[in-house]
Amino acid sequence: MSLVGGTLGKVAAVLAAGLVVSAAGVGAAVSTGVLNLQPPAVESVENEWGEISQERTGIQTRIVVNNPNGVGIPGVAGVSYDVAMNDVTVAEGSSGGLSLSPGRNEVTLRTDVDNEKIPAWWASHINDGERTTVSVEPSVNAAFLSKSLPSRDRTFETDMLSSFDSDSGQSVEFGDETLLTVKETEASWGTATRNETPLRFAGTVHNPNGAPIRFSKIGYEVSMNDVTVAEGTTGESVEIAGESTETIHVNSTLDNRKLDEWWVSHLRNDETTNLDVSVFAVAETDSGTERVPLPFLSERVVFETDILAGGQATTRSVETGDNFGFEPPVVESVERDWSATDSGTRFSTNVVVNNPNDADSVLSDAALDAEYRMSLNGVTLVEDRTESTLVPGRNELGFAGEVSDRTIKKWWISHVENGERTALTIESHALADLGFAELPVPLPEQNRTFETDMLGGFSGADEEVETRGQTVARLHDMNSRWGDATMDRTPMLISGEVTNERSRPLTVVKFGYEVRANDVVLADDESHVGTTIPGETTRSIETTGYLDNDQIPSWWVSHLQRNEQTELNVSYYAVLEYGGQQFTVELDSMSYTDTVETNAFGEK
Fold first, then answer.
1. Whole-angstrom Cα distance, residue 59 to residue 69?
2. Which phi and psi (to 5°) does residue 119 adopt?
3. Is residue 120 located within the same domain as residue 177?
4. H-helix or E-strand containing 122?
5. Residue 557, SS3?
6. What is the pLDDT of residue 288?
7. 456 Cβ neighbours under 8 A, 6+ residues apart
8. Using the 8-state DSSP alphabet, how is residue 297 labeled?
9. Percent of residues, the chain, with pLDDT higher than 70
10. Count of CB atoms within 10 A of residue 362's CB?
11. In this structure, are residues 590 and 514 in contact, taking their beta carbons and an 8 Å threshold?
12. Alpha carbons 572 and 586: distance in angstroms, whole number
């Protein structure tokens, strides 16, 4: 667009190069031989802007013309010319009568660009693919000569939307979180008329978060040197679903009737234009309609021209920023608590969130909808939701839920079946309704694994069984493992070898066992064995003990209340029958005391 004025500035050079001067008196001089037939020649051309008004743009051209003839030429010759851009005539000029003295002459020509013709030319320029042909058609009028000189055509092209096409993959950060990733942006013109020019631009964005991002309404404004040439709203809400990619379309329309005003601002601003496409979310508040900038969909371009001097136009993109104009809330602390109730177990979490934005921010007094879910090995223990107002400063979000004993036992069964291994998952989602959009607010999430080894103290070492000071048997290769748990109990499968050291038969009548965890009795019973071992013979024995799963919830609460620590005490004894008598023997190799520690919530 800047080349238009440059071509106008060079009109005089074209005209002067084809300048022909004639008059009735000159004809008589030629017939007597006083004047030769050499035409005047242009030595130099200088251009500068003349007076600029809202209606017209003046161009002043100074031409140095050399008259090689021996006599002066009186002011009876006239030069006129038209300037057309894509067949739209934008300027008409005439020199009036010219008088040329012998030798060097300075001639000043003045013409005006009709600013009202700029919108029509603009439409033709856009519809021709941002391509314009400037045609200058001069003509000479004199007493003995009226002649149209050959048209001088110059073609130029612009690429005003190139800065809008990008696949940079910039990210939109919301504090330490990536809110959106911009995959690409693009822009294109529609079919322009004298009155308007459609401009369509779009941004393809990816939402990496689990929660959707919603904009209730998107507005736009296109300005050139603060002259607003387009503004409006999309009229529809936009949603980018969680972990998905969507394209946001904005269809704007430039008011071509504003382009003559822009043209004047461009020249008065030292031939510099700030083209600013601003996209924003529209918020309806008690104070009226507010705009929240969306820089990732906006673009700012500065272009400069050097029209009259014939210099090249330059264009550069100006950084608009990638972030919103407000800060995300920050989680300051998380406190969790377990407690026993009459109906089961209560779990509560208190999250302290600091909102660093002041009362004038769009993130003050925002409606907050938060969800919280904790599961162990896929067993949901707590699922809660809270709605509150996110005020500036300190905010407390409370999540709580009753965890039934049945749920705790279901987790314990999964823990045993998974080799005493549990995957803990805490999912938190919060959406802040800002009036113009719903944006996710980062809350703490965890994915951790913890393990226990409650049977690990079972050594399996050889142990001699004595009665009345004599060794009657020896236990060896003893081991213990979990069986298939049910809601009622958890089997402990005990097996090993027993060697009868005496000559007479020995019977292992039963095993007794006790398991205490933080003073909670998980097991206290005896299991029948009934295996008789002949003298000086080794036999395998098997038996099963059981944990009472009804006690697991009480133990788990005590474990959490003691900073995820448990003092575990396991003891075994055997009832043997030998020589017609039964006696009880403590089995030290199978008994143990251990400390069980976990880091389920990552707070240690």
1. 30
2. -60, -40
3. no
4. helix 118-127
5. helix
6. 63
7. 594
8. G
9. 79
10. 22
11. no
12. 6
Are the C-beta atoms of residues 574 and 511 closer than 8 Å to each other? yes
User: Residue written as tokens 């969130």?
Assistant: 353
Domain annotation covers residue 50: yes
**For residue 268, which phi and psi values (nearest 5 degrees)?**
-75, -15
Long-range contacts of residues 441-444, Cβ cutoff 8 Å, at least 24 apart: 441/328, 441/329, 441/353, 441/368, 441/370, 441/390, 442/174, 442/175, 442/176, 442/177, 442/328, 442/329, 442/331, 443/331, 443/351, 443/353, 443/370, 443/372, 443/397, 444/331, 444/334, 444/351
Q: What share of the chain is helix, strand, coil (3-state, %, to 5)?
A: 15, 60, 30
Same domain, yes or no, for 513 and 444? no
CA distances from 336 to 64, 347, 443, 556 (A): 90, 7, 14, 14
Q: What is the pTM of this model?
A: 0.59
What value does the mean pLDDT take over residues 24-53?
60
Half-sphere exposure of 247 (CA within 13 A, CB side): 10
Buried residues in 478-503 as b, exposed as e (16+ CB within 10 A): bebebeebeeebbbbebebebbbbee
CA angle, residues 205, 208, 211, in degrees to nearest 5 = 105
Instruction: Report pLDDT for 227.
Output: 93
Compute the distance between CA of residue 44 and CA of residue 63 in angstroms, rounded to an integer.
Answer: 6
Segment 299-323, tens digit of pLDDT:
888 877 666 665 566 777 777 655 5
297 to 186, 204, 579: CA distances (angstroms): 10, 9, 94
Q: Which of 249-253, 461-465, 530-534, 571-575 has the lowest mean pLDDT?
A: 461-465
Cross-strand bridge partners of residue 424: 376, 448
Q: Are 515 and 505 in contact (CB under 8 A)?
A: no
* The domain boundary residue, chosen from 157, 191, 222: 157
Where a domain ends, among 118, 142, 157? 157
CA distance 518 to 565: 9
The whole-number average pLDDT for the span 269-289 is 77
Tokens of 302: 């500065």
198 shares a domain with 179: yes
- What is the bridge-based pairing of β-strands 592-597 and 344-355? unpaired
Q: What amino acid is encoded at 155 in this protein? A: T
Task: Residue 283: name the closest of 376, 219, 344, 333 by CA.
Answer: 219
Residues whose CB falls within 8 Å of the CB of residue 411, separated by 6 or more in sequence, listed in order: 376, 377, 379, 381, 422
- What pLDDT sits at residue 12? 38
**Cα dist from 603 to 261, 335, 596, whole Å:** 65, 10, 16
More confident residue, 176 or 126: 126
In-domain check, residue 602: no
**Which residues in 101-233 belong to E strands, given as ranges?**
103-114, 131-141, 146-148, 152-157, 171-174, 177-189, 196-207, 213-215, 218-224, 227-233
Mean pLDDT, the chain, integer = 80
Per-residue pLDDT at 538: 95
Burial profile 446-466: b = 16 or more Cβ within 10 angstroms, e = fewer? eeeebebebbebbeeeebebe
pLDDT > 90 in the chain, percent: 29
Under 8 Å CB-to-CB from 366, ≥6 apart: which residues? Answer: 389, 390, 432, 433, 434, 435
CA atoms within 13 A on the CB side of 422: 26
Claim to verify: residue 41 and residue 146 sit in the same structural domain: yes
Across the range 442-451, mean pLDDT stands at 84
Domain assignment of residue 312, given as a range: 162-318
pLDDT at 409 over 60: yes
